[in-house]
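At this stage, I wrote out one protein's amino acid sequence and its backbone structure tokens, and that material follows here:
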Amino acid sequence: MKQHLSVARARHVATVVIDRAPHNHVNAALIHALADVLDDCDADPDVRAVVLATEGRVFCGGADLTGDKPLVDEQGESETPALYRGAVRLFSAKKPIVAAIQGAAVGAGLGLGLVADFRVAAPEARFSANFVTLGFHAGFGISHTLPRVIGGQHASLMLLTGRRVKADEALRYGLVDAIAPLDEVRAAAQALAAEIAVNAPLAVEATRATLRADLAEAVRTRTEHERAEQDRLMLTADFREGLRAVAERRAGRFVRA
């Protein structure tokens, strides 16, 4: 999956770009490849901050729920636990991350955006924790990371309605830290990362480690619970109906079964 990733370095900032057209859907292999890139950035003393961006109109349309889930390693670890293990690796990165969000960040795509310390969004950006519309439980640690960023009440509103939140509302929630025009959003994220990078790097990393203490371990614990709930709900008629409803672009007809 490294063919879908590129890295450019300037002014002590590494810009990491995912390009997996058309919707930048994530899977375990891509998330682990991204974690490898962040590990490389952590090991590079010239890198002091990271910008996470994607190509195209969509930031990330979420995880691919279609088809059989492949085994991803020689031990036979399946897709979902491997994906969530990769999420823990992302939250374990040591250097500050600024996400440039130009379009929709949906489901696991929202989770990917929440890996970052800060989010710069275009007015066209949309944020959705749409799991309940699928008859599904939130994953990727979102049930922990979303309320951590925007508070329990706003997180509950997003998680229990599945609604799409526009960039200006996300700014009010604190989900977005700045809004920039679509053609300037990546540059604005790079400017914020550069503002961080001019400071003493050891002090920045130490302060960030304090602010995010135990976050990766909390994500590990929460994804174990999320996966158990997802496994249970995937056996329900409501989940099968949710997948059909989303594919057919209609409201679900759920029966509590």
In short: The chain is about 45% helix and 15% strand. The CA atoms of residues 28 and 83 lie 4 Å apart. The domain at 2-183 is CATH 3.90.226.10 (2-enoyl-CoA Hydratase; Chain A, domain 1). The chain has one domain: 2-183.
